[in-house]
Amino acid sequence: MAVKTIRTVGDPVLRLKAQDVSAISEEIVAVLADMVETMEHYNGVGLAAPQIGRSLAIVVIRPSEDLPVFEFVNPVITSCSGQDIDIEGCLSVPGTFGRVSRCSEIELEYQDRQGRRKRLKAAGLFARIIQHELDHLAGVLFVDKAESILPEEAES
Ligand code: NI
Q1: Residue 43: which region, alpha, beta or left (left: phi > 0; alpha: psi -120 to 50)?
Q2: What is the pLDDT of residues 77-100, one digit of tens each?
Q3: Which of 26, 71, 109, 133 is an active site residue?
Q4: Tell me, what's the pLDDT at 153?
């Protein structure tokens, strides 16, 4: 396991459509471990594989410190309802925050690290993080769809 460098806006890998994972190889397990370690090192609530330079359909999410890390391989949102606007940031767009409209409730299909197909329902912040991370797999950053970008905070 290793903390990886976070790719930032302007890096072409962030704009690629991530490749589906065909089999959970040892390499994929290693990518998952690197992603979790990198997310925790940078205190992120979520991380998508392209953010560490791997164009693969994998995301890891830790919506709060008292919850375990969720690992989603080949995730697909199958249902999206309601609407909620809140402020987002992204490790790949450092120092920038903006208001983004997201579905307030979603259903997700994915595979776990054993390759088993699973479904999950999510709402609120957890649903928001999932939508943000899945956008990374489509080459989309939150600044592309933000309704407004917040003014930079004055240096203290
Ligand atoms: Ni992000």
Answers
A1: left
A2: 999 999 999 999 999 999 999 999
A3: 133
A4: 67
The 8 Å CB, 24+ separation contacts for 119-123 are 119/78
d(CA 26, CA 45): 25
Contacts of residue 48, defined as CB under 8 A and 6 or more positions apart, other chains included, come to 18, 58, 59, 133, 134, 136, 137
Rounded to the nearest whole angstrom, what is the distance from the C-alpha of residue 152 to the centroid of ligand 1? Answer: 18
Q: How far apart are CA 94 and CA 113, in angstroms?
A: 30
Q: Are 104 and 84 in contact (CB under 8 A)?
A: yes
Q: What is the three-class DSSP state of 37?
A: helix
Angle of CA points 104, 121, 26, to nearest 5°: 120
Confidence of residue 151 (pLDDT cuts 50, 70, 90): confident
Cα 135 to Cα 138: distance, rounded to the nearest angstrom: 5
Q: Do residues 91 and 51 make contact, with C-beta atoms less than 8 angstroms apart?
A: yes
> Is 133 tagged catalytic?
yes
Question: Mean pLDDT of all residues in the chain?
Answer: 96
- Structure tokens, 61: 């999410």
